[in-house]
Amino acid sequence: MSNELDLDELVKIAREKRVLTFHDLKGYRLNLQQIKDLQEKLSRFGIEISDKETGSVGSLSQEAAEQIITSLRSGVPPPNVDVTTYSVGCINLIQQFHDDLDKVNTGSSLVRFMNADWGSGKTHSLYLLRENAFRLGFVVSIVQLSQTICPLHDFMSVYDSILWNLRTNEQREKPALENVLDRWLHEVSVIGKDRVKRIIESLPHHLVLALQAYYESVGPIRRDEEKRMLILNYLSGKTVPVKDLRRLGIQNRVVRENALDILTNMCRLFKNLKYSGICILFDETESIHSFSSSNQRDSAFNNLSHLVSRSSKLQNCYFLYATTPTFFSYSGGYQIGSYINSSSIFELEKLTVFEKKRLASRICQIYEISREIDVPKRHSQILDSAAEISDSTESTGDFVRKCITVLDNIP
Predict the structure, then answer these.
(1) Both 343 and 359 in a single domain?
(2) Are 8 and 129 members of one domain?
């Protein structure tokens, strides 16, 4: 079957369903150019490739719609609302991401970089990828890196944020570190002694002691909250008094040199609970080269190098570092530059006119739900025209805010 015939067959499927999903593409193994050609063919019929069978704007509650509109005004994605509801574009990015996670699920660990201009939807894209990772069974952590909150030059601060920001699809507001330990204790009682023994034997002794201590702290007879938090703080790399660790029989502190070992062992527990692995998405909110101290810049790049070099020894872990073009200009002077090549970089593509029209239409629908109104046809036409005349220099963020401003002016 020729590639052209493959595309025509997929167009036929899409026209019948009025949508084409990544599940439909699984058996075709299209390359990126073929995906672009397919999207161009579909655009003639007003159809786009989606990660969902059907759009779900109509199923949004008024509260969820209000959260989305408020977030679009501020430029920050809503943390607890499915961003796929209003997402468009990112076809190549999602396809590459799916391919990567398929490999990670089978035991690999990968590090990727996202190249995106400021205002192009970098943070939104990470939340979009988070939704896809959730659906593929991954535990996901989004870590926002900045000099004040989570500085990359402080590796243990980053590690702490990774652990505490881990979330599962079924419990998005509860840290997965607690979630997995609680579920693990439940599983111990049902999976049988032999399997428990095999799992325990695969873990380092200090982690086994930590699990045992956590089990004791949440016992049904006497709950010890102080002890429970001590174990959680220990696993996340926080400083725990030596006397408290010795009381539990734990000799090893979690430090920069062994933190990733703890992470991969935690991932084993996730895998035994039927998760696919861990997906960690870094959002660079301040460029490394803007750090005021050269020592901080050096440490930040060295910590990235440490992460990439150690990733080959991990299992079922995925790391994506979202940054801007200037990062790649400066990274060449550091060791991290030797790890970066074209195959490890995801380029966040600009939205086409068709995609901007789709985005404006979805924003209108969500706005109607949030305000419980019908958007006048004249305002919809204004947004449609705005998409037509929008040039390549206008960022996605600016276009979105323009849409919201037009809608906010509805009498």
Answers:
(1) no
(2) no
Q: What's the total number of domains in the chain?
A: 3
Whether the pLDDT of residue 215 is over 90: the answer is no
Dihedral angle sign, alpha carbons of residues 252, 254, 255, 256? positive
What is d(CA 186, CA 196) in angstroms, rounded to the nearest whole number? 12
Query: In angstroms, rounded to a whole number, what is the distance separating the alpha carbons of residues 147 and 320?
Result: 19
CA distance linking residue 298 with residue 301, whole number of Å: 5
Per-residue pLDDT band at 158 (split at 50, 70, 90) = very high
- Average pLDDT for 282-302: 90
337 and 355 together in one domain: no
Question: From the CA atom positions of the chain, what is the Rg in Å?
Answer: 23
Supply the pLDDT for residue 54: 42
In a domain, 230, yes or no: no
Both 17 and 158 in a single domain? no
CA 330 vs CA 146, 287, 293, 294: distances in Å: 17, 10, 15, 13
What does the DSSP 8-state code read for residue 52?
S
Q: What's the rounded mean pLDDT across residues 277-298?
A: 91
| Same domain assignment for residues 137 and 7 | no
pLDDT band at 176 (very low <50, low <70, confident <90, very high): confident
* Identity of the amino acid at 285: T
Which residues sit opposite 140 in a β-bridge? Answer: 167, 279
Whole-angstrom Cα distance, residue 403 to residue 360? 7
Same domain assignment for residues 139 and 101? yes
| E strand map for 128-168 | 138-145
Residue 293 lies in a domain: yes
Instruction: Report DSSP state, residue 341.
Output: -
Amino acid of residue 135: R
Q: Which residues contact 35 (CB under 8 A, 6 or more apart)?
A: 25, 49, 91, 92, 95
Range of the domain at 128: 91-169+276-347
Q: Judging by DSSP bridges, how do beta strands 138-145 and 49-50 pair with one another? A: unpaired
pLDDT over 90 at 113, yes or no: yes
Six token digits for residue 381: 């036409």
Could you report the per-residue pLDDT of 16-41, keeping only the tens digit for each?
555 677 666 766 667 667 777 787 77
Dihedral of the CA atoms 204, 206, 212, 215 (nearest 10)? Answer: -100
Place of tokens 């062994």: 258
- Confidence (pTM): 0.84
Dihedral sign (CA 374, 73, 361, 67): negative
Average pLDDT, the chain: 86
